[in-house]
Write a structure and sequence with these properties.
153 residues; mainly alpha; two-stranded antiparallel ribbon
Length: 153
């Protein structure tokens, strides 16, 4: 992730204008950044979090997802909430305004994967009393054995 993090801490995928030269003396290309790279990184970070249970991976996935929403080298969003589309890339002077299927899927798959992970992440961090209460009534939810016994009486 070090290679894909800008000095200001935002996610910076390796650009496709030169990629990352094989020589370690080279530097990764800054532009053009593509949504598919952000999605792959969100997925990889969440997979690493699931395997290692290290919260840093979860937070890296969240930070990476913010790239779609404007936390990127140009401080401009690629996701367009007015139509649900996603621009095709971040170029040196702005976004590529095309909104192709690959970019749309990259954004929406990242969103769904991260939302699922957020539910899991925060569920295990809530006190047990909150995890066992009904969200509508804030009353404790009986176990299945208690519910069955109550229905018999």
């Amino acid at each position: 992730m070090e290679v894909q993090t800008a000095p200001n801490g935002v996610f910076r995928p390796v650009g496709n204008r030169g990629w990352y030269p094989q020589s370690r003396l080279g530097h990764p290309a800054q532009f053009d950044q593509q949504p598919i790279e952000a999605h792959a990184t969100v997925s990889a970070c969440l997979a690493a979090w699931q395997v290692t249970q290290q919260d840093s991976w979860f937070h890296l996935a969240e930070n990476t997802f913010q790239w779609f929403l404007g936390s990127n080298d140009l401080d401009v969003p690629l996701y367009d909430p007015s139509n649900g589309g996603c621009c095709d890339g971040l170029q040196e002077h702005g976004v590529n305004e095309n909104q192709g299927a690959e970019s749309l899927l990259a954004y929406h798959l990242s969103f769904v994967e991260l939302e699922r992970a957020r539910r899991a992440f925060f569920a295990v961090r809530r006190p047990i009393s909150e995890r066992c209460s009904s969200p509508r009534t804030n009353q404790k939810v009986p176990s299945s054995a208690q519910a069955q016994a109550a229905s018999l009486s």
